[in-house]
Design a protein that fits this description.
With 772 residues, this protein is of the alpha+beta class. Among the domains are: 99 residues, Tetratricopeptide repeat domain (Serine Threonine Protein Phosphatase 5, Tetratricopeptide repeat); 47 residues, no CATH class; 106 residues, Methane Monooxygenase Hydroxylase, Chain G, domain 1 (Up-down Bundle); 60 residues. Helix content is 48%, strand content 10%. The strands form 6 sheets. A 4-stranded antiparallel beta sheet has the order 1-4-12-11. A 3-stranded antiparallel beta sheet has the order 5-9-8. The chain has a 3-stranded antiparallel beta sheet with strand order 14-15-16. A hairpin with a 7-residue loop joins strand 15 and strand 16.
């Protein structure tokens, strides 16, 4: 769904909508052109709107502040004293971002962070911070400490590593970027091609057989935006005293790579980067215009910020070309179900693909259109107040006998509304075409012997070619995201004999986000290449999937899974809804048991389907729908309490609760029910935390059976469970069982993540140890 503006701003715009003249409101509702919608909203937007936006964003100020920087440094010192160096480095980094340029507080934060990085054995990063501290006026009477640290770092630095880093900051007026080579934005394997039809629009098909696991597509986004506040890092002390850092503190705001020592923006306290190269790229593309808006963009939501970045990157010339005739004898046709581009796509002109994504302006509700349009208009007003227009939105003019005018002398041209209309277009498009970039986040205490993880959304991105893929509730592809370093070319993996020097050069020259699409099964020639937009046939029933897809993407899904399941689910759908857990559930593998004889419990047909009865005629036991619902809800709530106990490092209490719940659940749930799988997984985690590895493995095997039935024997979900099982068998020194499960895990991980994923390296190390 869209990341809408904050509630205060939504209420403000809602009041404007309520106050509109009925005739004017009807006129707005009838508008079908983006330009008309935006011009209408712009005519209603006043300075009072801009002032209100600025007032509610004041609580999220991004101004530099020496006092706040000092507080962060003190928090870092507290973590440093208990040897929690990672948390200390993050606190010092926050202080670095808050400290004014060339201030003593900035030098002290850099110096303290260098100490934390040294203890983390990040010697090159430590040397960089030593240099930065000295350049920013570190007290001379303390400089001997930094010199001693430099000497220790140089002693421990690997032979051949380059010491020192040029500390360029584009926010301070530098105009000479690192000059890095850009990687290709999209790579499609030779066995796939773009096709077009009236009913499906432009889409990808196989022109030759594509083997399972083969890379079909690698693409870097046209633009992306980091989502704030969705990730936490827990200190060694854990529990209530843990240190929590949002994604904005942990990841580069350009390439999304994780970093403990970000390079700050010189003008604001929010944006930070993993390197001066990423800092420069972001500054040139969008941040030099975002930075003056400060906290205003925190009010507007991620979708507007992403839409603004797309428009800033495109520039007025690309927009005007895209708004003109399509040319080359092409005609706009019906888009595919995702609203993807019906026009000619080209790696040399990716913006044309972006511009012609369907915006569905007539299908969004009038109030949502009004909210988006007024928000964009207000941001454009704020942007015009901060100075001249972005260089990419200024048509270059050369006066007679003179040179091209400087950026600071430029005026908004040709029309001030064009940028806003373009941003609004992209904002509406993104509801159907944005891609959530996900990553695994560690959960539980940092000092626990067992680490759990959960999938979180760290960014939103726009991938023009990925948007060509139509949806299927049972797709034939698997998606994986990488951040920080460019992936290998499409159809190949990094060569084993690739020199370390060339790999290092690749890492320096092509940082960024990449999506990799692999074939999850064999795809025959002429077969369409499909991926899932979220609602999957293994997680929810057909009508629920169709409802969610229609609400967000404005199409009624009739994929193969929906067509096959719709008829058989008409009678069974309500039963599946009662059985599935609150997180989604699945019609496959769900099974209710009769609490009296343990036979199958099916929905009654003779009472209008309002209850359940035992399938065995000799029993005939009945249960009402509310009784079944209450039983399942009680199991779910107990499971959640047990997981909470595990998070609080109380595995013994959690285990007692889980064992009691499993005995009770066995009276109504078959072993293959998804809830039984979740109970077994939590029980395995409790045993593992207590060091009972083999008991944990026995429980996890039950979860593996449920997962395999729910998601399929070739699913990534099963791969993840089997990987945990291999770890448990290895820790329990169960050599035979461990060696038997490793090949299964390897096959599935290669299928979905490729042969060079970190999990396969860990499996190889385990296998070598067991065989050795």
């Amino acid at each position: 769904m869209m990341d809408l503006p904050c509630l205060q701003w939504q209420d403000h715009v809602a009041q404007k909508w309520i106050g509109l003249n009925p005739e004017f409101k009807e006129k707005f509702i009838s508008m079908e052109e983006i330009d008309d919608v935006f011009k209408c909203a712009l005519s209603l937007t006043t300075q009072a709107d801009a002032d209100f936006m600025q007032s509610i964003s004041a609580a999220s100020s991004v101004q530099k502040d020496s006092d706040q920087a000092a507080e962060c440094r003190q928090k870092g010192n507290s973590c440093f004293k208990i040897r929690d160096y990672s948390a200390a480095a993050l606190h010092y980094s926050q202080g670095i971002c808050l400290a004014p340029q060339s201030s003593e507080q900035l030098s002290l934060c850099y110096a303290n962070r260098s100490a934390a990085l040294y203890h983390l054995q990040l010697y090159q990063e430590c040397l960089d911070d030593v240099d930065r501290a000295l350049k920013n006026g570190y007290p001379s009477h303390l400089s001997h400490k930094l010199q001693d640290r430099r000497t220790a770092c140089l002693k421990d630095l690997p032979v051949g590593a380059k010491a020192g880093e040029e500390d360029g900051n584009p926010a301070r007026g530098s105009h000479s970027g690192p000059g890095r080579v850009k990687a290709p934005s999209v790579q499609i394997c030779p066995e796939a091609a773009v096709s077009s039809s009236v009913d499906k629009g432009r889409h990808l098909v196989a022109v030759d057989r594509i083997a399972a696991g083969e890379v079909i597509l690698r693409e870097r986004p046209y633009s992306c935006v980091l989502l704030a506040g969705v990730q936490e890092v827990k200190g060694k002390h854990g529990g209530a005293g843990r240190d929590v850092f949002g994604t904005e503190s942990r990841r580069c705001h350009w390439c999304l790579a994780e970093t403990l020592c970000p390079v700050p923006c010189g003008a604001c306290s929010y944006s930070r980067y993993c390197s001066t190269g990423c800092q420069w790229d972001a500054w040139e593309e969008h941040h030099r215009w975002e930075c003056p808006l400060g906290a205003d963009l925190t009010v507007t939501g991620a979708m507007l910020q992403l839409a603004l970045r797309v428009a800033l990157k495109a520039g007025i010339e690309n927009v005007q070309m895209a708004r003109g005739p399509i040319g080359d004898g092409q005609n706009e046709s019906e888009s595919n179900s995702s609203g993807s581009n019906p026009c000619q796509s080209s790696s040399s002109d990716p913006y044309r693909s972006v511009f012609h994504l369907l915006h569905h302006v007539g299908q969004h509700s009038p109030t949502l259109r009004f909210l988006c349009a007024v928000t964009v208009a207000t941001v454009c007003l704020r942007l015009s107040e901060t100075g001249p227009p972005p260089a990419s939105w200024t048509l270059t003019r050369r006066p007679a006998g003179g040179s091209v005018e400087e950026e600071g002398d430029a005026a908004w041209s040709p029309e001030p509304w064009l940028l806003g209309s373009t941003v609004l277009r992209h904002m509406l498009q993104l509801r159907c075409n944005t891609q959530a970039i996900v990553a695994l986040q560690d959960a539980g205490a940092a000092n626990s012997s067992v680490q759990s993880s959960r999938e979180i959304r760290v960014a939103s991105a726009l991938f023009p070619t990925l948007s060509l893929l139509n949806h299927s509730c049972r797709p034939n592809t698997s998606l994986a995201f990488s951040t920080g370093i460019r992936a290998a070319p499409c159809g190949s993996e990094t060569s084993a004999d690739c020199s370390r020097a060339s790999v290092a050069e690749d890492q320096r020259s092509a940082r960024g986000v990449t999506v990799t699409v692999r074939a999850a099964k064999v795809i025959a020639p002429a077969q369409e290449i499909l991926h899932c937009y979220g609602p999957h046939s293994s997680r929810m029933v057909t009508r629920e999937r169709q409802r969610l897809l229609h609400e967000q993407y404005f199409f009624l899904c009739q994929c193969e899974a929906c067509s096959l399941q719709e008829e058989e689910e008409e009678e069974e759908e309500e039963e599946c809804k009662e059985q599935r857990p609150s997180s989604g559930g699945t019609p496959q593998g769900s099974a209710l048991l009769c609490s009296k004889c343990q036979g199958s419990l099916k929905r009654s047909r003779d009472d209008g389907g309002s209850g359940f009865s035992c399938s065995l005629p000799s029993c005939g036991h009945r249960m009402s729908a509310p009784e079944v619902r209450n039983e399942l809800q009680e199991i779910r709530l107990t499971l959640e309490r047990a997981v909470e106990l595990l998070e609080r490092e109380k595995p013994g209490e959690a285990l007692k609760l889980l064992e009691r719940t499993r005995r009770q659940s066995g009276l109504i749930l078959a072993e293959t029910h998804p809830l039984q799988g979740e109970l077994a997984d939590a029980t395995a985690r409790a045993y593992a935390t207590m060091g009972a590895w083999n008991d944990a493995a026995s429980q996890l095997e039950k979860s593996v059976a449920a997962i395999g039935l729910q998601y399929g024997e070739d699913s990534i979900e099963l791969a993840q469970q089997l990987f945990k099982l291999a770890q448990l068998r290895f820790n329990g020194a169960a050599r035979g069982p461990a060696l038997s499960v490793i090949p299964k895990v390897r096959r599935l991980l290669c299928l979905h993540l490729g042969p060079h994923c970190p999990e396969l390296q860990e499996l190889k190390a385990m296998e070598d140890c067991l065989r050795g």
